[in-house]
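Dear Dr. H.,

I hope your travels went smoothly. While you were away I took the liberty of generating a structure for the chain from your last submission, since the lab meeting agenda had it listed for discussion. I wanted you to have the full record in hand beforehand rather than looking at slides cold. The sequence, exactly as received, is reproduced here:
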Amino acid sequence: MKKRLLFCSFVGILTACQREGDIQPTSTTLTGEVVGTYRTNFYIDPSVALSAGQLPYAEVKAESNNKVTLVFHQPALAQKDRVVQHVSLSRRANSIQLNVGSSTIATLQTDRVFTDNGMEKEGQLLRITLQDSSESALNFSGARQ
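The corresponding predicted structure, in token form, is as follows:
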């Protein structure tokens, strides 16, 4: 009986000595949920009929807890990258919106996405709709990599 009591005490002491960081959940910021690289393919956007190396992609880079920089790369047209800085983030019921001023320029939501070989899976889908007066309109749909 003493051996069982000693063993249970030993297990109880080890359990009580765990670090608090192992037990507590980590807090996730909106920026942490959005930052990453988003790529398109023919299955996500059929209007894009280019080879894999020429496909456009978008990068979202962190500035602060609720601000990001959006960089759109379009290798096929050899244009310079389009950069939108100081994009604020706001959570909606089923998505995260990316806003510049009072205009929504993109949304990120969990949706059906397709891999490069056409397999369907659930993933993060970024949809950008950006209309500038100085440049042409930008429409992009891409899955998080």
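Two observations you may find useful: Helices lie at 2-16, 20-23, 30-34. The first helix runs from residue 2 to 16.

With kind regards,
E. W.
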